[in-house]
Each structure stands twice: as C-alpha cells, then as structure tokens.
C-alpha cells in the first residue's frame, strides 16, 4: 500500500521507502528520542531542504509511519516523544544517536559553516592520513572489476618506492587508518596495504587470479571472548560487564581472522603482557591462545 507521495505504509516488509526519505524519517526518530525536541531545523540543516519540505516530512512520518510517536509541545516549540513512543525505522539504541553525532561532526568538519542542529557535543578524531584520490579511485575500480594493478608503494622496511602488483579486493577502515586487503604477487600472499603509502599507478596488469574467495584469513571468522580482568573485585567486574554489554560475564566478538590485529588494537589490549593495575587492564581475552594465532 502506498500513500499519495509513493511512500509504502508497511515499513517492515522490504522497506518500500525512498532512500533519502527513509534517512530523514530515521533522523526524526533519533533526534526526538535522544534529544527530546525535534524541529524542522534538524531536517533543514542536516539535509539541505526547505522548511516546507521538512514540515511535510514530519507530517508524513506521523501519517504513514508512527501516528502516535510525536506530540507538539508549544513550550519547546517543537515535537517531543509521546508516552507511547516506539521506534519504527530505527532500533532505539544509543549507538544510533552516537553514530549520527559522529557522522554529522565529520560532515561539519568539511562544511564548517553549517549549523546542523546538534549542540553540546565534541568529538576527538585521529589525524587524517593523506590519501591520493587518483590512487583510491584506481584501487576501488580494480577491486570492482577483479583486476590486478601495478602500484608504487613505500614501506617502513624499504626506503625506496617499489613496484607492487596486487589484486585488491576490500577497503578496510580501522580506528586509525584505511588500508586495502589485496593479494601481493611479490610476497605471494594476501597482505594489508596502507592507502597513504601508495605513491603511483603504473597500470592494470590483467584479470586477478587470486580473489577474495581464495583469501583464507579473510574468510575465516574468529571469536574474541572478552571477560572482566580476573583480578578485579566482584563489584568492579559487574561494572565492566555492564560497560561491555556482557552476558553471563563475557562478550563474544566475531572478527575476520585478517582483522583480529586491528580489533585487538581497537580494544586497547596488548596480548603480550598484562597491565600491572587491574583497573587499567579492565578486560581480558578468555581464549587468548586462539586469538594470538591470528593476531600477528
């Protein structure tokens, strides 16, 4: 069933909503739920739309998605969640709001004059590593087309730029950098190449024989089992368990074998030693021997 705007009313079946409208509906729910006040400015500033369109979107959300979710509050001069608010196009998890903040702060970093309507927020980000756009495009297109490509690359172990014929298959974002997972003909194995260390494009070398399907470490999933540091008191363990959303005293994170080193780094863990203070360590890897086999 569709309304006069062509928007499907059965949200859960196939998501029959235009992508850009769905994103605006999601923002409506996220802002209303977590900030407690939604205005047309949130939509206008975040999506660059006119106030009339923003009002139309809010009315469409109330008409077609969740008629009882929002109520207008004249004192707030905006909409607030009703007593029976139920997320319809979001999950209602705090991570959605935090990710929205991170995305918008990143957007505002590029377009510094924009006021996107999210106040009282500050975000620390690591320094950006310089990535040549021509090189990124070449790698993306080679991965998409299943091609080998000859690239100039520098590494910390070699002072000179050298030619590397690689078959890239996936771009990977870690908390500190972007890299590309690729088969390296020189080393005859799959490796990670930091995007900022490519220096030139020497040309396409034909079809890739070694693809993602042959990358055993990429296709192998490993569970990292996190538990509170055993040296903590029961009270402290309970706090850590709550922090990491543990069930039965543990949190299981499933990671590709090739990405285990980065997951461990993101968790601020050193698999080779234990911090002297349990309060500094906080968490431990219960299946340490298994994880170590995939971490180096």
UniProtKB/TrEMBL annotation:
Domain of life: Bacteria
Pfam families tied to this protein: BrxR_CTD, WHD_BrxR, WYL
Record-annotated DNA-binding transcriptional repressor CapW C-terminal dimerisation domain positions: 222-291
Domain DNA-binding transcriptional repressor CapW winged helix-turn-helix: 21-102
Domain WYL: 135-201
PANTHER family with a match to the protein in the record: PROTEIN PAFB, PTHR34580
Record protein name field: WYL domain-containing protein
Naturally occurring in which organism (per UniProt): Rheinheimera muenzenbergensis
């Amino acid at each position: 069933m569709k309304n006069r705007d062509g928007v499907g009313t059965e949200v859960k079946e196939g998501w029959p909503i235009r992508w850009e409208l769905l994103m605006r509906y999601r923002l409506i729910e996220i802002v209303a739920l977590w900030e407690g006040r939604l205005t047309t400015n949130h939509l206008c500033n975040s999506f660059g739309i006119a106030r009339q369109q923003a009002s139309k979107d809010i009315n469409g959300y109330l008409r077609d998605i969740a008629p009882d979710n929002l109520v207008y509050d004249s004192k707030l001069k905006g909409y607030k969640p009703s007593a029976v608010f139920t997320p319809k196009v979001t999950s209602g998890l705090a991570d959605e709001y935090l990710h929205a903040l991170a995305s918008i702060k990143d957007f505002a970093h590029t377009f510094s004059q924009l006021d996107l309507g999210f106040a009282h927020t500050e975000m620390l980000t690591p320094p950006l590593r310089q990535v040549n756009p021509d090189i990124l495009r070449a790698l993306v297109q080679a991965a998409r087309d299943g091609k080998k490509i000859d690239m100039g690359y520098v590494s910390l172990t070699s002072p000179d730029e050298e030619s590397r014929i690689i078959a890239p298959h996936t771009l990977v974002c870690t908390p500190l950098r972007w890299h590309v997972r690729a088969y390296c003909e020189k080393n005859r194995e799959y490796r990670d190449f930091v995007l900022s260390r490519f220096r030139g494009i020497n040309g396409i070398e034909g079809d890739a024989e070694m693809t993602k399907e042959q990358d055993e470490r990429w296709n192998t999933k490993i569970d990292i089992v996190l538990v509170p540091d055993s040296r903590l008191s029961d009270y402290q363990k309970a706090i850590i368990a709550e922090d990491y959303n543990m069930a039965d005293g543990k949190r299981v994170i499933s990671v590709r074998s090739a990405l285990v080193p980065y997951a461990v780094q993101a968790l601020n863990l050193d698999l080779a030693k234990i911090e002297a203070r349990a309060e500094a360590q906080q968490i431990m890897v219960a299946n340490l021997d298994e994880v170590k086999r995939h971490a180096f």
